[in-house]
Amino acid sequence: MLKGAASLSNSELLAILINNGTKDKTAVDLAKDLLAAVDNDLQKLRKLSVREYLQLKIKGLGEAKSISIAAALELGIRRDSSEKKKNIILSSKDIAEYLRSQLQYKKHEVFTVVFLNRANKILHHEIISEGGITATIADPRIILKKALEHNATAIILSHNHPSGSLKPSKQDEDLTYKIKEAAKYFDIVVTDHIIVSDEGYLSFADEGIL
Q: Which of 80, 102, 118 is the last residue of a domain?
């Protein structure tokens, strides 16, 4: 550890969070068991809830240790989000990277809006609605009310597809058009609608369907 956290393996970093092992296994052994349970995929690990950690039934990995790991991974997600939030949005890639850090680990569909000022800097980002695995509904009136509250001159709509598909539905397109047209009355521009998933992202603006 004297050489810095970057010099440690994934299992060694997890072992620090686990803190201590069992009679038969060290903390590093438990960390290796946990990583093996998610195919050594940190993305899968970040998606697990505390309950799902416990369902893995790894002896020595109880609720307290599971909470510590989940909390540390959540801090990592929030750090990524905080760093990206400082940036000015210049392209769909910029906002997609920011949104993926927020949404790609959600197991149900979430509709969010990013509120921007005239310089395209993020003023606020908020979850508007949460739904099931396949759909969520967003109210244009709520979105525009919040845009006015934050003095936003532009907004970016976004939602995730837990299924992994990036193809927009007819409902996605209709809702986008409805919000875009309503926003015009308040001189607010809908600059994009981003769909994010584990597979990447899709920009309505880039695809010419905004």
A: 80
